[in-house]
Amino acid sequence: MATLTENANWGTELWDQYDNLSIHTLKGIDFLERYGHFVRDRATIESEYAYKLRRLVKNYQPKKKDEEDYQFTSCRAFKALMTEINDMAGQHEVVAEDLQANVIRELTALVKDLREERKKQLQEGQRLSQSLQTQIESLQRAKKAYDKAFKEAEKAIDGFQKADADFNLSRAEVEKHRANMAHKTQTCDQAKNEYAVQLQQTNQLQRQHFRSGLPEVFRQLQDLDEKRIKNIKNFIKGSVELERNVFPIINKCLDGVLKAADIINEKEDTLLVIEKYKSGFQPPEDFPFEDLSKGGSDSGSANNLNNIQLGSKIKDGGYTVKGTITGKAMKKRAGIFNIFGSRGKLTEVCMAIKNAAIADGKEDLSELPPNQRRKKLMQKIEELKTKVTQETAARDGLMKMKGVYEGNPALGDPRTIESQLNECSHRLEKLQQDLVRYQGYLDEVVKGIQSGNLTNSVTGSPRLLNGSSRIHRNSGGSAAEENSLSSPESGLGTSHTSLHHADSDQDQYDGNHADPESEYYEADVLPAIGICRALYAFEAASEGSIPMAQDEELHLIEVDQGDGWTRVRRINGEFEEGFVPTTYIETSLFNT
């Protein structure tokens, strides 16, 4: 294959390839248009991909009934992941829009311009070729006329010579042949001159056609084709740049996915499961041996057995003794959290905890296990407090408006506020009554836990920090509210740093072992029984618990009593005592 220099052009190298160049340029423009269709379809795919990603995220958003499960770190990580995927979908939309605006639009306009320019140049080439063809045809006619005149002139000369040599012909006939010869000779000379002129014009036009006219047309077609090729190159590079521009944001989205994965903590989820499903009941005691040979039977044992049988709720998979789950019910669970299926059921325990009060029609939630009942009652109390605050603010606003109207009747009639004020007062009174009632329920639960029947302590005493439990002597529901915050799980203990309240000067305490004149009763500080080290960092999220840093050492005050919490005291700094998760520490007891 011959190597062409940069100065090589179609006009000189391809002077006789008009038809092939016409076909080549047509194919080139068709290829450019096909590439444009490819980019258009690519943009469509990007747009559809972005739409499907958004649809995917929308389909897997947590349903309202599953929101409670999204307190777990794995679920929260999955929710954060979906947010990042949604952002990535937006970047694919940006790519589709930029391809449409910066590539497809320009490419479509370029195809149109190239087609028009090619058509113009081909028409110019056809005009030049037609002119040359016309001139060649004129030359052929002139040559044909010259050939005919030359033959007739030769024939006339031959006839005159024969007539002049024939003595039998008269002088008039010889002169007639002479005149014919002269005429034919003159006609031949004229045809010869016309042929010479046409030949000169044809050669001149042909040189101009192949040396300047047609090469210029081919040069324009060459520029057109090179422009097409160059723009394909630019379009490809431009498409790459458009994608590179969104890579940093996509990388940030991927980093966000990694951060979401980092928040997953199996230990924290384990503690959340304990807090969510813990009933507060103790396992049943052993069955006593019944010696029938001594006469009679152990009625207490029989009663115990009967109580267990009555306390069981086994029907198509339900509860066994004191709220635990049967194996049959466990088999019916569709998944761990049931957050990936649109028609799945909540687990049996979740359904029982959330709907037991509604199904049985009991507003005190007495059908729930103690711990779950306490949590639900506390949530209800917080909701009522929020509503009381809102209604109080609304009532105060109406009273201020009424006062303004009374002071300036021109602004409005105070009587129009009376009905609204009465309705607000009635709602507020009802809410306060509900608040007192639910605080009484909560007080009942807390007293039940502290009574010794439903305690978390092996010895049967409630897990309270010495000197940390404040109990109103005769204060009704408010005592329940304060005692309900006395455990690491919002249950059974209060940290040293969480004891001071603004209304402490009005509190009264149980004085069974204290001086009646004393405002507080505080027991002695318990001695340390060992040392523990924090395996993980822990942020205290409930009353009674204290935070700790990873690898921090603390005094061990009381070992885990079966509820998953261990009582510790800070070694350095100010006095601070409370509960931490047992799974977050390693302990070492002192030798006694």
From TrEMBL:
Q: Which residues form the REM-1 domain?
A: 366-444
Region (Disordered), start-end ranges: 285-304, 452-516
Query: From what superkingdom does this record's organism come?
Result: Eukaryota
Q: Which residues form the SH3 domain?
A: 527-590
| Residue ranges occupied by any F-BAR domain in the UniProt entry | 8-269
Q: Which family does it belong to?
A: Belongs to the FNBP1 family.
Output the PANTHER family linked to this UniProt entry: CDC42-INTERACTING PROTEIN 4, ISOFORM B (PTHR15735:SF12), FCH AND DOUBLE SH3 DOMAINS PROTEIN (PTHR15735)
For this entry, the protein name equals Formin-binding protein 1-like
* The organism of origin for this protein: Dendroctonus ponderosae
